């Protein structure tokens, strides 16, 4: 019994400090994630005047719209084209000016009238995504977000141990909050009970978000690719290209296609394809509007098609020779290995798009639950009169050591931070004249 109490103290101590340090980061992730679930709806409201057109009998060819944009902006390079994916939706043409500023021009596909422009850097939901993914702080922010996510998993594991009822018949304070036991008990229950209800959802959101992280996600992507779970050789027409340029460097594509090498167009007697010819090739390959077409910017560049739709099963990444119109690579969900398919599905579920509004509402419920758990945990800390949980006099049990080592190996950033915490804890104990264990 005494040994179990010491184990409880150790786990509580780790849970307390991890929650105290990473609560602000997790609160930002929960709030921004809950909002980002409704990206499509929010953008439709924000940019309604740019998106909406009056349907007419026939759309103009893409080349006509390109000419209209070039006439209005003669000094820009056209980099991207997104055809209208609904009768009342405008087409988008991405441009880059001489200063390197990327903008989107919205064109009425029936009249070729330019509806308006939007600086890509001013897209509100893109800024929100940067806050969610990297706290608007680049690589350092990305690592902090990844570290917070990894420690959130540790919080879930340690919290589950602390929550686990010691009496089987116990319900109140475990699966239902106690409303008449005083404010401190209520705050405690509003921390513990919602956490128990949404722990599976939190775990899922964290694990499906980690593939996008800069360190862990990159290592996972390399493992998937090098193990043959990534792009298969069968997608190439002829030999796979020897290229150092990755598809993520030229287009926004699905996770499994980011490491796909970009082939080169082989210059020949052929004239480069017109945009209308490229669109015909795409249509013949059965790809429906809802994709972005990235335009080659030099003589060896390729047309790159990226369909990154709500459902993972509809993802497409295709490279087209700009002279012959040959599909040099056609990479779709069915070509992914099991790991690639699982991660692609996880990402669309994480973003709330795979199953439409029900997916978004479930994700929102988990995010709201996370906010409640974090805020109630911070209130518990404020109400606590004795500071942090006391450090047990004996060392960590072997089983806990195994768990800590496994977590540290699986999530290296968290493992490195654990070592830092152990060293600090040891130094503080020695400074106080404690006995090392």
Summary, kept brief:
By secondary structure, the protein is an alpha+beta fold.
Verbal overview:
This protein has 13 helices and eight strands. Among the domains are: 51-126, Nuclear Transport Factor 2, Chain: A (Roll), CATH 3.10.450; 231-336, no CATH class. The protein has helices at 2-36, 39-46, 48-51, 62-72, 124-134, 138-163, 183-209, 216-226, 275-284, 338-350, 356-383, 398-410, 412-431, and strands at residues 77-82, 91-96, 102-107, 114-119, 292-294, 302-307, 316-321, 327-332. 50% of the residues lie in helices and 10% in strands. Strands 4-3-2-1-5-6-7-8 form an eight-stranded antiparallel sheet. Helix 1 crosses helix 6 (138-163), helix 7 (183-209) packs across helix 11 (356-383) and helix 12 packs across helix 13 (412-431). It is of the alpha+beta class and 437 residues long.
Structural class per helix/strand content?
Answer: alpha+beta
**Count of alpha and pi helical runs:** 13
Low-confidence stretches: none
Q: Report Rg.
A: 26 Å
Instruction: Note the beta-strand portion.
Output: 5-15%
Q: Which strands sit side by side, in order, in the main sheet?
A: 4-3-2-1-5-6-7-8
Number of strands: 8
Q: Roughly how many Å apart are the termini?
A: 21 Å
Compute the average pLDDT.
Answer: 88
Helicity level: 40-55%
Shape from CA axes? elongated
Largest sheet: 8 strands, antiparallel
H-E string: HHHHEEEEHHHHHEEEEHHHH
